[in-house]
Every structure is written in structure tokens, then in C-alpha cells.
Specification:
This protein is of the alpha/beta class. The protein has 14 helices and 5 strands. The protein has a 5-stranded parallel β-sheet with strand order 2-1-3-4-5, with helices on both faces. Helix 12 links the parallel strand 3 and strand 4.
């Protein structure tokens, strides 16, 4: 089946803007094969992001893969990713736009997946919890560190759970009912993250999770679960969307009591400055 026929089969499931893109592709495949995403958007009268979101709706990795499919329709032969990449390089396709628009599309998809009521509940839990623990293993660990550092700028008692078994046992053992565990599971389900979440939940702590899939097994033990990205998104795009959601959650938490959080931030910054001054003095 040609790719244009696949578009026709899925046409009814597309949004209004995506249908404009779909119809243009069916009517003008040569234009798609020879123009970059931003130019196509201008010709259709939609944003470049809408073009990229259409690609994701068709379960493609991005505009480059769409061009591969259309070129294969036009020539009657499959174009490999390697050949497409070589041609793209020769035509000086704007890689910056391509990559960053995939990030934008991933963030926009996350917005659509996020329940506003759950978002409000999450920022209240972040604000009200006495102690806050952040868990992220393997490729989710850098995101957990980012979240921990960001939160630590505004409030006390924020700890990142370290992956060593003895640390996990010790830190979960200190959790109380007014504690909050924030789990970041941005890759394929990590059995260790699932077990730790289940164990923490047995201590009656609240659990908020950000996962890559809305069918993640962590759902059974999370009070609130957010899904970022989509099935076709690369991990880097999923992480970008997760960090944007984290930013929004922290801003929401701060909005609960701006004066309190800003005062803590100032005091924390002053402490850091005094510490650096003392450290320099000791080495003079």
C-alpha cells in the first residue's frame, strides 16, 4: 500500500490542521519530496509544528521519514535512511529546525496528555510534603538530578535516592506518611524503579510519577502519573518534554507561596556565597 493511501485510511482520525497537511501531501507529493518542513507549512497555511505533529500522528519519526515515504511512492522503490540522510545533507536541510521542532512537538503532545486537575494536585503535594524524595535510575538519573537541584533552590528536605541498595533501604526506611516520592521512569520500564516505588508505597507515602507510557506498571502505585512524549519519540525528546513538565511543576509549587519560596532561595544563595568566601579565605 502506498503511503498516500495510508494517509487516506487515517484521514478521519487526524485533527483539523493535520487534515490540511494530509490533503496537501496527497495532492502535492512532489512538493513534499523537495521542500523542508517550514516551507511546506507556509504553503499549506499552517505552522511547521503542525506539519511535524502530522508526522507523529502517522507514526513517523519526523519530516525526514515522511519525505522517504513520499519519495518511495514517487519512484516506486524504498529509500534507505542512509540515502535519505546523505541527500538531506547535500540539500542543506535545516537540521536545527528539524530537531528542535521534534522537541516542540513532543512538548505539545505532553500538554495534550496532561490532566489539569492532576497537575494542580501535584503542585499542592510538592508544596505540602514535609520531605521529598526523587527517584530516577539509569538514563532517568540525570533528570532526577536536575529535578532535585531545582527543588533544592526553593525548599528544604529534598533528597535524590541513590542507586546503591544500602542507600535505597536506608532512605525508604526514613519515609513517613507526609513524605512524597517523585519517580522519573523515562525509558522502558525499569524493574528496579517499579519495585522501589511499590516498596515506598507500602509505607503510605504519596507517589507522583513521570513515565514514558500511560500503561506503565508504576501506574498501580502512583497517586498521580504524568505521561511524556509518544511511542515514536526518541529518549532525548522524551527527556526534553519531561524537563519542561518539571519546570512547570516547580513554577506551580512556588506560586503556592511565592514569598516563602523566594525568601528561601535568597537565603540559600547567601549561604552559598558565604561558603565560597570562607573557602577562598582558607586557601589564601
Amino acid at each position: 500500500m502506498s503511503f498516500c493511501n495510508q494517509i487516506k485510511k487515517r484521514f478521519i482520525r487526524l485533527s483539523r490542521g493535520q487534515r490540511k497537511v494530509a490533503q496537501f501531501i496527497i495532492d502535492n507529493p512532489n512538493v513534499i519530496a523537495t521542500h523542508i518542513a517550514s516551507d511546506v507549512g507556509k504553503l499549506i497555511g499552517v505552522s511547521e509544528s503542525t506539519v511535524i505533529r502530522f508526522c507523529y500522528a502517522m507514526e513517523l519519526s519526523g519530516f525526514s521519514e515522511l519525505q522517504q515515504k513520499i519519495k518511495a511512492d514517487l519512484t516506486g522503490e524504498e529509500i534507505t535512511v542512509e540515502e535519505s540522510n546523505q541527500k538531506a545533507a547535500k540539500k542543506n536541510v535545516n537540521l536545527l529546525n528539524e530537531v528542535m521542532n521534534r522537541d516542540v512537538a513532543c512538548i505539545l503532545n505532553t500538554i495534550n496528555l496532561t490532566n489539569e486537575e492532576q497537575f494542580d494536585q501535584a503542585i499542592k503535594l510538592l508544596h505540602q510534603s514535609t520531605s521529598l524524595y526523587v527517584l530516577g535510575l539509569r538514563q532517568s538519573s540525570p533528570s532526577a538530578s536536575f529535578f532535585t537541584c531545582t527543588l533544592s533552590n526553593y525548599r528544604k528536605h529534598v533528597k535524590q535516592i541513590q542507586p546503591e541498595p544500602e542507600n535505597i533501604v536506608k532512605q525508604i526506611g526514613t519515609m513517613e506518611e507526609n513524605s512524597l516520592l517523585f519517580v522519573l521512569a523515562l525509558e522502558e520500564l525499569d524493574e528496579d524503579a517499579f519495585k522501589i516505588t511499590k516498596w515506598a508505597k507500602s509505607r503510605n507515602v504519596k507517589v507522583i510519577a513521570i513515565t514514558h507510557s500511560n500503561i506503565s506498571a508504576i501506574r498501580d502505585y502512583a497517586d498521580i502519573m504524568f505521561t511524556v512524549g509518544a511511542q515514536k519519540n526518541a529518549l532525548a525528546e522524551t527527556i526534553t518534554a519531561a524537563h519542561s513538565l518539571i519546570h512547570a511543576l516547580v513554577e506551580g509549587m512556588v506560586a503556592q507561596n511565592k514569598k516563602e519560596y523566594k525568601n528561601f532561595q535568597k537565603a540559600n544563595a547567601q549561604f552559598d556565597n558565604n561558603y565560597l568566601y570562607l573557602e577562598k579565605t582558607l586557601y589564601i
